[in-house]
From TrEMBL:
Its EC number is 7.6.2.1. It is a multi-pass membrane protein. The keyword Ribonucleoprotein does not apply. SUPFAM superfamilies: Calcium ATPase, transduction domain A, Calcium ATPase, transmembrane domain M, Metal cation-transporting ATPase, ATP-binding domain N. InterPro entries: ATPase_P-typ_cyto_dom_N, ATPase_P-typ_P_site, ATPase_P-typ_TM_dom_sf, ATPase_P-typ_transduc_dom_A_sf, ATPase_P-type_domA, P-type_ATPase_IV, P-type_ATPase_N. Keywords: ATP-binding, Cell membrane, Magnesium, Membrane, Metal-binding, Nucleotide-binding, Phosphoprotein, Translocase, Transmembrane, Transmembrane helix. Pfam families: Cation_ATPase, E1-E2_ATPase, PhoLip_ATPase_N. The chain crosses the membrane at residues 271-292. It comes from Syphacia muris. Belongs to the cation transport ATPase (P-type) (TC 3.A.3) family. Type IV subfamily. GO terms for biological process: phospholipid translocation. It is found in: Cell membrane; Membrane. This is Phospholipid-transporting ATPase. Mg(2+) binds at residues 388, 390.
Length: 626
């Protein structure tokens, strides 16, 4: 990656004063037209309708005196009135879009300015500003999370406007900025951010934060996207990275397209049929007129007509004049009021939609808005409903139900929760006890769940329901995850509190299909714990790994019953090997060019020679039938 193509953002730095001139304004516009583009775009949309093209031709033909049997403005006047009415409707709807944009642009947020929080309109937010967002507020731009009201810069966000998911997602700032919550600390923060240019990918971010001589890798876990909302967190402080139409949400939205409804498409088809009929009638009538005038009337001497010889060229010219005359004469076969009637009906429908009490949402105090009345008739025309399983067909309430450890199956399909306490008794079994302990450690260590204390009770918050189910399952079996900091995690193992030092976390992704954590155990050993899809874990197992056949059999059994399955494994690492690997991983983590590839390469080097522990089975019940 060419470093000149990177975005460099300075905070509380002499270079920060002019950087916002290089970046997009935070004011947005979703209007369909502007002053210069209105006429060409409007005419383009109108003349996609075959009827309008037809009447334009009729208007032009009527300007030829020897051809038109009607007045020059017979069609022109109603045609112009119809186009004007359509233009007024488009202008009216675009004004509503403009008002909506203005309302959003005038939302207020707090910006750190001259040592105090100052309320500022969204449209005036610039890149490099430090902003404070409070609970239930939307993020005005794409932000880098610095600190929050929670410990270790944790925050919870709702992204339903971005991806439709209602589960709260967890974001966490870097440890080096997590304590900077006061105005004085934020005002003294001088740093530089080097990151990728604006792009549409909402699941990835690559950047590096420089504070003095130190550099810290940034990922999507520290990014708060415009359109998301802060939940269950009093406040967060962040640095503005991307504004306006350079924010990921806006980059994923396109210029309002010129859409056609099924009614418009159908009308175009019918008009083509009528047009063909009109041409056929005009051709036949022109032949009849030519024959009558030059062959029948020419012999009616008693009416004063005399027989005259005509050249082929003269007959052809007369025929073409007659053809155009009949073409104009029969133009009412295609009603000029058709499109005008449709426009009026759609305008009235849009009004009734906005006034319909049945379409009012009392919870959010919002009414239905017909932003594009041309598509009113598309409502209720759905033919297919596509849905995934989780949260749509199922309840999205995960429960740890069964497991297989060291080839032995535990759990009961009939029980509501995991209730096979043979597992606890088997911990003292010399043959499989160590495997059970390691299985429970994977459940309680390898995750992104946040533990919170609520009236002396531990509450687990997770953006992944599967991870929450595993952590709760481990707690029910005596391995209680109590607290996590950016550098350590505390687990109460059978009433004995143990602290594990978190050395590295290799996060889950849809490409990797696995997650692993490297920890230093209380006894000083370094271990890698991993969980993931069976197709990935089994391909990385050591030749010395046991119980493969038994686990595969249990995997098949659990899958046939509709359970969600994960394989657990671990690897013990020696100090020398880990030290060399950790150095390579640290370099990969702060690389701007090819960071994702380098991290994946490092992960592939250490996530091998694994020892299989077992398999978990999580139930996600189907929705109740109403």
């Amino acid at each position: 990656m060419d470093t000149s193509s990177l975005r460099k953002i300075y905070v509380n730095h002499p270079s920060a004063g002019y950087q916002h001139f290089n970046y997009a304004s935070n004011a947005i516009s979703t209007c369909k037209y502007d002053i210069l583009s209105f006429l060409p775009r409007f005419l383009q949309e109108q003349f996609r309708r075959y009827s309008n093209v037809f009447f334009l031709i009729i208007v032009l033909l009527q300007q030829i005196p020897d051809v038109s049997p009607t007045g020059r403005f017979t069609t022109a006047v109603p045609f112009i009135i119809i186009l004007t009415a359509s233009a007024l409707k488009e202008i009216f709807e675009d004004i509503k879009r403009s008002r909506s944009d203005k309302e959003i642009n005038n939302f207020e947020t707090k910006i750190l300015e001259n040592g105090q929080w100052k309320k500022t309109k969204w449209k005036k937010v610039v890149v490099g500003s430090i902003v404070r967002i409070e609970n239930d507020e939307f993020f005005p731009a794409d932000l880098l999370l610095l600190s929050s009201s929670e410990k270790y810069a944790l925050s919870y966000i709702e992204t339903s406007n971005l991806d439709g998911e209602t589960n709260l997602k967890i974001k966490q700032g870097l440890e080096c900025t997590s304590e900077k919550t006061e105005i004085e600390q934020l005002s003294e923060l001088t740093c530089e951010i080097c990151c990728e240019q604006p792009n549409k990918n909402v699941n990835q971010f690559i950047g590096t934060l420089y504070i003095g001589a130190a550099s810290y890798p940034l990922s999507i876990n520290q990014i708060l996207l415009r359109g998301a909302r802060l939940k269950n967190t009093s406040f967060v402080n962040g640095i503005v990275l991307y504004t306006g139409h350079e924010a990921k949400l806006l980059m994923n939205s396109t210029t309002a397209p010129l859409k056609q409804s099924n009614i418009d498409i159908m009308v175009n088809g019918r008009i083509l049929i009528l047009f063909v009929m009109l041409v056929i009638l005009s051709v036949i009538s022109a032949f009849g007129s030519l024959y009558y005038e030059h062959f029948l009337l020419s012999g009616a001497y008693y009416l004063g007509f005399t027989r005259v010889s005509f050249s082929f060229l003269g007959l052809t010219k007369t025929y073409m004049y007659n053809l155009l005359t009949f073409f104009i004469l029969y133009n009412n076969l295609i009603p000029i009021s058709l499109q005008f009637t449709l426009e009026v009906v759609r305008f009235c429908q849009a009004y009734f939609i906005s006034c319909d009490i049945e379409m009012y949402d009392e919870r959010t105090d919002t009414v239905a808005v017909a932003r594009t009345s041309n598509l009113n008739e598309e409502l209720g025309q759905i033919k297919f409903v596509m849905c995934d399983k989780t949260g749509t067909l199922t309840r999205n309430v995960m429960k740890f139900k069964r497991c297989s450890i060291a080839g032995k199956g535990y759990g009961d399909d009939e029980a509501d929760e995991f209730a096979d306490f043979r597992l606890i008794a088997d911990i003292d079994n010399q043959k499989c006890g160590d495997y059970i302990l390691e299985f429970l450690r994977v459940m309680s260590l390898c995750h992104t769940v946040v533990a919170e204390l609520d009236n002396e009770n531990i509450v687990y918050r997770s953006s992944s329901p599967d991870e929450g189910a595993l952590v709760r399952g481990a707690a029910n079996l005596g391995f209680v995850y109590e607290m996590k900091t950016p550098s350590s995690i505390k687990i109460k193992e059978r009433d004995v509190l143990r602290e594990y030092v978190i050395l590295n976390v290799l996060n889950f992704s849809s490409e990797r299909k696995r997650m692993s954590v490297i920890v230093r155990c209380p006894d000083g050993e370094i271990k890698l714990y991993i969980k993931g899809a069976d197709s990935v874990i089994f391909s990385r197992l050591s030749q010395e790994s046991l119980f493969k056949d038994e686990c595969l059999s249990h995997l098949k059994e659990y899958a046939n019953k509709g359970y969600r399955t994960l394989c657990f494994a671990y690897r013990q690492l020696n100090e020398e090997f880990y030290g060399k690997w950790a150095k390579k991983f640290a370099e990969a983590s702060v690389a701007i060019e090819g960071r994702e590839y380098l991290i994946d390469k490092c992960a592939s080097e250490i996530e091998v020679e694994l020892l299989l522990i077992g398999v978990s089975a999580i139930e996600d019940k189907l929705q109740e039938v109403n």
